[in-house]
Design brief:
The complex is a heterodimer of chains A (about 300) and B (about 270). Chain A contains seven helices and 17 strands. Chain A is of the alpha+beta class and about 300 residues long. Chain A folds into two domains: about 150 residues, Alpha-Beta Plaits, CATH 3.30.70; about 140 residues, Alpha-Beta Plaits. In chain A, strand 8 and strand 9 form a beta hairpin. Chain B has a domain of about 160 residues. Classes of the chains: A alpha+beta (about 300), B mainly beta (about 270).
Chain lengths: ~300, ~270
């Protein structure tokens, strides 16, 4: 199976059931909305070490936001709804409320809700007040540039984490270029984020370790420097670099679409093989087969 | 099919028609509705004595004619839609908890007193004590929305504890008197002594107004919540200018004779 000159492995990405939320951050200018969003999505690459995965979904024009100011849509994912609620309180409280001029709105319509503004309101020390507008309650917390306004509750919904593709290239430069092309295409898909730095991860992991305290460790089968060391290396001949793109989405269809466009964009001369990471199908609830994505794209 | 009542005999003294609500008439045919007892002055009469009734009650009730002497329409309703094609008398939607009332014309005093939910839309004017507490009661409306596209008179939102009252035109004096919480928006000129005795809540005026000396000026700012509220009002066909959405408002806090946690926001040109 090939896209142009790049071979596509007949395997599947093993993705996991997660819980997701969409947070709309608005501010006086695009700069401040982005500053808050970047702060909120920092240190949120993997649930393994960060308790959640988060990223910027897209920027929003003023006409697309509840308060008609420039905005940014952020997606946050965690392994359960309770944990997701805690992460939202922490991150909105520490990264959005602190950022000048911002307001923060729920961006999802779902059955389950977690209380966010209803907890952050206590920062107002009794001076906070609320307003109910079109059946939604918002909290107004006095801050030094005016007020911070935040939705009382945020909707959370079942979501999908851990969609992925692995790009195996002839060298670092070629593989980076392909990864950049793929992430650029994937960011056009609504409902997904790429939680790693600029969407790309070099330290792919496997489950477990020789060290008992670690639940994950380096994915040695994809480390070029270990090709001659490990018993089964997946670094193909002529390849000297492997980069992974991980995708979290609000539903499996969005993750599949991101992977589909990513495969097409990443398939460039010098990319020897594109494959996907899985655990034999024993851990994740979703199997996203590359052959289905390539077939549909073709 | 909706229920349609057309007035054929104007009453000489007020009719008290609190039983005429869309929820109470569900499942009733025209004969049953014609037989509903209503009060005409000090006499008990029936709906059929004053109205021609057509259709069947399925949660939507239309009344037509000069109903300015018909009181308590929609009182206590909890669901359904009540449309009045003409003027209506006092105590409209008193104590209602849900549903929608739409008036094409003007309304008398006491619109939605002590209501707890639902929505009242009046396309004309209303008189005194819109969304208020009854005399002797400390708490006015505890929820719901009242939209009046025209003018209102005195004591709008008296003792209001929650909900939203919007006047597209001018308001009289003592707007939000003894208010406990909630929001009152006056798009036209607002009378004097607004917010007297208010504890919490928000009164918004789009024009300069005379403030009581027990209110303190805080700052000028653009309240984000108001952007959302005004956008919602635009969708209700209120005339909201963009500068009112994006502009700055003076914030005054008061009433200092009470908790001083209320606010009056005044749009600055």
């Amino acid at each position: 199976m090939k896209i142009k000159s790049t071979k596509i492995n007949d395997t599947f990405a093993e993705a996991f059931k997660m819980w997701g939320a969409r947070v709309l951050i608005t501010a006086e200018t695009r700069q401040w909305a982005l500053a808050a969003a970047q702060s909120m999505t920092g240190f949120a690459t993997s649930v393994i070490g960060c308790k959640c995965e988060a990223g910027i979904e897209k920027e929003l024009a003023a006409s697309e936001t509840p308060d008609q100011r420039p905005g940014v849509s952020v997606l946050v994912f965690a392994t359960d709804s309770e944990g997701l609620g805690k992460r939202l309180v922490e991150r909105i409280g520490q990264c959005v409320m602190t950022c000048p001029t911002t307001a923060c709105f729920n961006g999802l319509d779902a059955e389950n809700n977690v209380v966010v503004g209803g907890q952050l309101r206590y920062f107002g020390d009794g001076y906070q007040s609320s307003k109910k507008i079109q059946q939604r309650r918002y909290w107004r917390i006095p801050v030094m540039d005016g007020e911070f306004m935040v939705d009382e509750t945020f909707a959370v919904q079942p979501a999908v984490g851990g969609g992925n593709i692995l790009l195996i290239g002839k060298d670092l430069k070629t593989t980076l270029r392909a990864a950049n092309a793929a992430t650029k295409a994937m960011r056009q898909v609504d409902g997904v984020i790429l939680p790693f730095p600029d969407g790309v991860v070099r330290s792919g992991s496997k489950v477990g370790s020789k060290y008992k305290s670690l639940i994950a460790s380096t994915n040695d089968a994809y480390c070029p420097t270990l090709r001659g060391v490990v018993t089964e290396s997946n670094v193909v001949d002529g390849a000297h670099c492997v980069l992974e793109i991980v995708i979290d989405g609000l539903d499996v269809e969005a993750v599949e679409q991101a992977m589909r466009v990513g495969l097409q964009a990443a398939a460039k001369p010098g990319i020897k093989l594109i494959t996907a990471g899985n655990y034999g199908g024993n851990l994740g609830q979703f199997k996203i087969h590359l052959k289905d994505l390539v077939g549909e794209a073709a | 099919m909706s229920l349609e009542l057309s007035m054929h005999t104007p009453p000489e003294v007020p009719l008290e028609a609190e039983l005429l609500t869309p929820d109470r008439t569900v499942g009733m045919d025209s004969n049953a509705v014609s037989g509903i007892a209503i009060q005409h002055g000090n006499r008990q009469v029936t709906v059929g004595d004053f109205f021609t009734v057509k259709g069947k009650g399925e949660g939507e009730l239309h009344l037509e004619g000069d109903l300015s002497r018909v009181k308590h329409l929609g009182s206590g309703m909890s669901s359904g839609s009540l449309y009045i094609h003409g003027d209506v008398g006092e105590h409209l939607g008193a104590g209602m908890s849900g549903g929608k009332i739409v008036i094409d014309g003007n309304a008398g005093s006491w619109v939605g007193p002590e209501m707890s939910g639902g929505r009242i839309i009046i396309k004309g004017d209303a008189k005194h004590l819109v969304g208020s507490a009854y005399r002797g009661s400390a708490v006015g409306i505890t929820g719901g929305e009242i939209y009046i596209h025209g003018n209102v008179k005195n004591e709008t939102g008296h003792g209001m504890r929650n909900g939203l009252i919007v006047a597209g035109g001018n308001s009289g004096d003592f707007t939000g008197v003894n208010m406990l919480a909630g929001t009152i928006i006056v798009l036209g000129e607002m009378g004097i002594r607004s917010g007297a005795g208010m504890k919490r809540g928000t009164i918004i005026s789009m024009h300069p107004t005379e403030m009581l000396p027990t209110f303190s000026y805080n700052c000028d700012f653009n309240p984000i919540f108001l952007r959302l509220m005004l956008r919602a009002l635009q969708s209700q066909n209120f005339n909201i200018e963009d500068k009112q959405i994006t502009g700055k408002y003076q914030r005054w806090s008061g009433d200092s004779v009470e908790m001083n946690r209320g606010e009056i926001l005044i749009f600055r040109e």
